[in-house]
Amino acid sequence: MGILEPIKAEILAIRIIPNVSPDLAASLNLRPDQKSIGMFTCTIDDVGYTAIDEATKKAQVEVVYAKSFYAGAAHASGPLSGEFIGIIAGPNPAEVKAGIQAAQLMIQEEAFFYTANEEGTIVFYAQTISRTGSYLSKVAGIKEGDALAYLIAPPLESVFGVDAALKAADVRMAVWFGPPSETNFGGGLLTGSQSACKAATEAFRDAVLAVARNPKTF
């Protein structure tokens, strides 16, 4: 396969509910103005979180539910489950559809995992988000529109890589995802200027690649 080959997520199922039932609306804690919801599943959870945040930047929608499934897509509960489900809510079906389309585009064209070894058995996510939407800014506890380095890798690689990222640029840890996550990875959300987040992302990538090249050399 080769090193630094993109691993693209796949959306498995999409549905829009134009007028959500009152009981489900209550269960999702929807506001009275949030009449419609849209949902999708995909094969890679961190790509899903990035994509659903993108939806909040391109449409009048909010993320009302977003979860990873345990053990990952290889052990999914069904062929349309993957490892992530996200639900957005908006005032009408048109806004929800626009949000889903923005998420689709992000998954298809921008947010990818990459391979760290020739076999493609070690993969990582190192995505610079130049401007957060309402969802990831809330998760990270930062202002909407701030930059993030979204960094995910297998357990040891993630800890080593996050440390390298923090030392490489003027960034701070907003959230640490200590391994194992639901999908048995780890990582973090680092925040700073856009250029600092980019430098941190590159340092994380290089650290993961170094471990993959020489896993037992210390």
Automatic annotation (TrEMBL):
Keywords: Bacterial microcompartment. Coiled coil: none annotated. It comes from the Bacteria. The keyword Transmembrane helix does not apply. Pfam families: BMC (PF00936). It is found in: Bacterial microcompartment. InterPro entries: BMC_CP, BMC_dom, CcmK-like_sf, EutL, EutL_PduB. Residues 112-215 form the BMC circularly permuted domain. Transmembrane segments: none annotated. Its main location: other. This is Ethanolamine utilization protein EutL. It comes from Carboxydothermus ferrireducens DSM 11255.
